[in-house]
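From the pipeline queue, job 12 of 40. The input is one protein chain; the requested action is below.

Action: predict structure.
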Amino acid sequence: MKSIIIATKNKGKAKEFEQLFKKYGFKVQTLLDVQNAPDIEETGSTFEENAVIKAEAIAKAADTYVVADDSGLVIDALDGRPGIYSARYAGTDKDDDANIDKVLDELEGVSKENRTGRFYCALALAGPGIETMTVYGTCEGYILFERRGDGGFGYDPIFYVPSEKKTMAEMTPERKNELSHRAAAMNKLEPLIADL
C-alpha cells in the first residue's frame, strides 16, 4: 500500500484528507507518525509558496508523497490581510479570539457591502519522482460585525456564507467540510492523486 503524509499534526484536518486518499489505496499518515519530522519555517510570501516549502521539505526527509496546505482568511477591505499571517495575526501564539478582535477592530466603520472576503487554501503535492504541483480553493463570504455560532475554529464565527445564511461556526462540521476552501482545493487535487 502506498503511503502519503499529510503535513499536519491536526487530526481533524487529517481526517478530511483520509477519506479522499483511501479510495486510491493510500495509507494516510500525519506528522505525528513521522519520526524526527523537520520543523519547517514558512518563509513564503503566498499560501502556495508556504505549502510547497512544507511539502518538499517533508517529502525529502521521509522519501514519500506529501500533501501540505497553507490557508487563511483574505479580506478585501484590508488589502488581503490577515492572509498568510491568519493564524498569528494578533501576535505570535495562535489565539483565535485575539485574531478575531483585531480583524473586527480594523474593519470598524466599514459597511456590510465592503466586508467581502474569502477563506483561501493552497495545497501542494510533492514526492519522489514527481514535480511538485499546487492547487487552490476558496470559499467566498462576508465578515460580520460580531461573532455568531459555537462551532469550527479560527475566524469561523465572523465568516458569513450568504448561500447558507450562516457563519461557518453555525454550520454542522459536515456542511462546513462540503463548502470549505479546503474541500474546493481537494476536489482539484483528486485528479492529481488518481494519476499517481
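Job complete. The CA atoms of residues 85 and 92 lie 10 Å apart.
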